Amino acid sequence: MPQYDYDLFVIGAGSGGVRAARLAAMTGARVGVAEEHEVGGTCVVRGCIPKKFMVYASDFAHEFKVAKSYGWHVDARFDWREFLTAKDIEIARLSGVYTANLTKAGAELFHERATLIEPHCIRLANSGRTVSADKILIATGGRPWKPAELPGVEHAITSEEAFHLHELPKRMVIAGGGYIAVEFAGIFAGLGVETTLVYRGANILRGFDDDVREHLTEQIERRGVRVILGKTWDAIEKTDTGLLNRLTDGLEIESDEVMFATGRNAYTKDLGLDAAGVELRATGAVKVDEYSRTNVEHIWAIGDVTDRMNLTPVAIREAIAFVETAFKNNPSKFDYDCVPTAVFSQPPVGTVGLTEAEARKTFGPVDIYLSKFRPQKVTLTRIDERVLMKLVVDPHNQKILGAHIVGPEAAEMIQMAAIAVKAGITKQQWDATCALHPTVAEEMVTLRERYIPPELAAAE
Ligand code: FAD
């Protein structure tokens, strides 16, 4: 049997790579990990965690508005630099914790870029060392994408730079309609930036429930985001006073920054996957089977680089399944059904299971339970904020197929609701749960009347 330097070599120490390396090392395997930037990867360094700090920072502005109607007089001033410093200190601490956990588990960490040069061989860029491994795990994540052919695109930033802007801009234009675009629009608008969201499609958050999309658009507009749909860019031009965004149909918007959140690509460039014979999908993502194994027997891939469901908890679960399969003789695959997701917009969205459209496509007619209401907290104010709650139910067996919330703490609520939806409970079992009063969440278990959209109700 050939002797390798490592039993496992992991390329990329992000959410998936760190978990896989740590768990594999804990089985006694000899594990090496390479990371070309900071340990922790996208989520910790330029994704979920810094983004959530920005959402918290931004949301205070709304809270101060609410507070006024409760008798508070707050003389608030936001210091962007102070915030960035506090955020960066915490991100560095977290990255340190991830590093310590890796090495404590016995994995050997290389702070450098790794590329494959042969099916079992990896070259480390800085030291020039070549190491060999019995098994290799690709966990290199994704990178933001900008349309290279757009004139002036070099003036546009992506989410990566948005975390480190030298100054808070006065005017921001964001391109995209996905969750990252919507979240950053909320962040900047909350921080007092004149914010415009431009999306080429008919509505934001493609793939989410249509009622959620419509409701959220209204809500973010009320919080000050200007939403422009059905437009793209002709060019971005630098002017004396900022950037001129030339949109289709002659619309022009001046801004200080323009951020493209128009998608992310699997990060497989120059990784040497061809040298190892690893096949890619047409999108450039690594092609894997349901056990995260590539077409090459000993090479595996997890997380965003496989472009299955690009979320941190999913990358982690894929890592756990990989270690069970490859190191514990317990073939395991992750079940992608009913993964809860959130959009940390303001207000946020929480969703689990099928949208109404998906459910109709699969099951035919479905029962809908829907409520829109003003949450108690804003009833002392003049703020016209509405919560949306929606359940999609299979009329044949009353199983809850999907739950969707737009409103304060939607993400926290949906994490709990996901337990019930994942367990496959019926609407009757759901309703048997007594309400907890007074909460926003209680509305979820008191949705008794089937919802008929006004246009259908008129026809009945
Ligand atoms: P990553 O975490 O991207 O890790 C890959 C690592 O590999 C990186 O550190 C990279 O530097 C390293 N690397 C790449 N190539 C090499 C190489 N050749 N050699 C050495 N190192 C290499 N998900 C959520 O669940 N919730 C959220 O709220 C959320 N918010 C997000 C917000 C933003 C702005 C972004 C961009 C993403 C967000 N995500 C969120 C998605 C989440 O961050 C990813 O799904 C997750 O980080 C994927 O983990 P991963 O291990 O696949 O890759």
Helix content: 25-40%
From the helix content, strand content and strand pairing, which structural class follows? alpha/beta
Average pLDDT level: 96
Give the amount of beta strand, in percent: 15-25%
Description:
The chain is built from 13 helices and 21 strands. Helix 3 packs antiparallel against helix 4 and helix 3 crosses helix 6. The N and C termini lie far apart (74 Å). The longest helix has 25 residues. Strands 1, 2, 3, 4, 5, 6 and 16 form a seven-stranded mixed β-sheet that branches. The relative contact order is 0.12. With 460 residues, the protein is an alpha/beta fold. The protein is 32% helix and 23% strand. The site of flavin-adenine dinucleotide has 35 residues, from helix 1, helix 2, helix 3, strand 4 and helix 9.
Structural topology:
Elements: E1 6-11, H1 15-26, E2 31-34, H2 41-46, H3 48-68, H4 80-104, E3 108-110, E4 114-118, E5 121-124, E6 130-138, E7 142-144, H5 159-162, E8 171-175, H6 179-190, E9 194-199, H7 210-222, E10 226-229, E11 233-239, E12 242-247, E13 252-255, E14 257-260, E15 264-266, H8 273-276, E16 299-301, H9 312-327, E17 341-343, E18 349-353, H10 356-363, E19 367-373, E20 387-393, E21 400-406, H11 410-423, H12 427-431, H13 454-459
Parallel strand pairs: 1-2, 1-6, 2-3, 6-16, 8-9, 8-14, 9-10
Antiparallel strand pairs: 4-5, 5-6, 7-15, 11-12, 12-13, 17-18, 18-21, 19-20, 20-21
Bound molecules: flavin-adenine dinucleotide (FAD).
Residues 11-17, 34-37, 41-43, 47-48, 51, 113-115, 139-141, 159, 180, 267, 271, 303-305, 310-313, 315 line the site of flavin-adenine dinucleotide.
